[in-house]
C-alpha cells in the first residue's frame, strides 16, 4: 500500500504543477477563476486516487464533476448538472457490475480487507451501489460522500433534516411525514446533487446561498393553504444541483 500512496502523491503533484503552469501561461483561451483551479486540483486528486485504488464510482464521479466544472468551455451547459450526474450514477453502477469479477479476482484485498483504513464494501457500497434507508426520527441526518443515497422519512413529528452531500447524490422523500407546525431542512451540497420530494401542501421558504455554477429547480406546483406547514429550506450549495419535487 505504501507503493500505491507514493504513486498517488507523485501523480497528484505532477498534475497539480501542470495545471498551475498552464493556467498562468494562459495557454488556454478560456479564463478560469482561482477557485475553479483549486476545485480542479481537488477533483484530479480524487480521480488519481480512485484510479490507483481501482474505485470505479470515484473515478466516474470525479470525471462527471470535472465536466460540470468545465461545462462552458466544453459546450455542455445544456446537460449539467442533472443529466451528467444521472449518467454518472448509471455508468458507475454498470461498470461496477461489469468489472467486479475481474477486480475481485486480481485484487483480492478488495474482497477481504482494508487499504489505508478504507473498507471497500462498507464505504464504496460495492455490494449495494445505492444506500437506501427508512427513518422515522424527528431529526434526520443524511450524509453522502462520493456515493448515492435514498432516504424515506416517515416521522410523525418531523422537525429537522440535515443533508450533507459531497461528490454524490441524495434523494430524500418527505411525502409520508407529519409536521406539527414548522420544520427546517438544512442542505449543504458540494460537487453533487440533492432531490427533495415534498408534499404539495408544504410552504417552502427558501434561504439558500449558491455560487454561479449551481442550480435550483422545482418540479410540480405547490398548493399552499392557511393550514399548510411552513418549512424553512436553508443551506449552501456549490458546483451542485438542488431539485424540489412537489408530489
TrEMBL record:
UniProt xrefs under InterPro entries: LiaF_TM
Residues passing through the membrane, by range: 7-26, 32-48, 53-73, 79-103
Keywords from the named record: Membrane, Transmembrane, Transmembrane helix
Domain spans labelled LiaF transmembrane: 8-101
Originating organism: Companilactobacillus nodensis DSM 19682 = JCM 14932 = NBRC 107160
The protein's name in its UniProt record: LiaF transmembrane domain-containing protein
Domain of life: Bacteria
One Pfam family of this chain: LiaF-TM
Amino acid at each position: 500500500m505504501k507503493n500505491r500512496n507514493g504513486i498517488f502523491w507523485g501523480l497528484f503533484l505532477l498534475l497539480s504543477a501542470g495545471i498551475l503552469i498552464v493556467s498562468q501561461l494562459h495557454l488556454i483561451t478560456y479564463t478560469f477563476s482561482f477557485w475553479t483551479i483549486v476545485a480542479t486540483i481537488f477533483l484530479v486528486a480524487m480521480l488519481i486516487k480512485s484510479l490507483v485504488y481501482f474505485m470505479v464510482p470515484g473515478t466516474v464521479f470525479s470525471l462527471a464533476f470535472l465536466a460540470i466544472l468545465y461545462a462552458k468551455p466544453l459546450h455542455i451547459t445544456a446537460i449539467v448538472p442533472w443529466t451528467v450526474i444521472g449518467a454518472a450514477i448509471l455508468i458507475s453502477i454498470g461498470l461496477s457490475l461489469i468489472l467486479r469479477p475481474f477486480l475481485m479476482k486480481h485484487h483480492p484485498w478488495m474482497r477481504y480487507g482494508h487499504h489505508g483504513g478504507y473498507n471497500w464494501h462498507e464505504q464504496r457500497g460495492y455490494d449495494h451501489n445505492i444506500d437506501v434507508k427508512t427513518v422515522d426520527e424527528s431529526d434526520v441526518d443524511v450524509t453522502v460522500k462520493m456515493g448515492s443515497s435514498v432516504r424515506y422519512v416517515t416521522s410523525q413529528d418531523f422537525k429537522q433534516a440535515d443533508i450533507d452531500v459531497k461528490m454524490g447524490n441524495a434523494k430524500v422523500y418527505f411525502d409520508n411525514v407529519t409536521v406539527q407546525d414548522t420544520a427546517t431542512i438544512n442542505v449543504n451540497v458540494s460537487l453533487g446533487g440533492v432531490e427533495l420530494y415534498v408534499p404539495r401542501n408544504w410552504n417552502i421558504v427558501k434561504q439558500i446561498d449558491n455560487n454561479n455554477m449551481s442550480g435550483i429547480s422545482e418540479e410540480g406546483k405547490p398548493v399552499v393553504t392557511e393550514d399548510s406547514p411552513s418549512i424553512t429550506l436553508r443551506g449552501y450549495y456549490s458546483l451542485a444541483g438542488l431539485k424540489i419535487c412537489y408530489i
